[in-house]
User: Fold this.
Amino acid sequence: MQQAQQNELEAMTDMFNKMTEQCFKKCVAAYKEQELSVGEATCVDRCVHKYMVAHAKVQEILGKHAQQAQLQQGR
Assistant:
């Protein structure tokens, strides 16, 4: 069970790093100011939301597949 938790932690860390990199590339064109502009902040919010929704959907699908595999093994 501990290995599964470690794998999940690594997957979440990887997803977070990719999300950060991609949303930054997409939403921040240049370092003009210390703080994000309203447009940049809105873009980042939307980008992060899309990543999180997609991640949740993938987790849901993988969970269903794992559950089906367990049911088939139990037969």
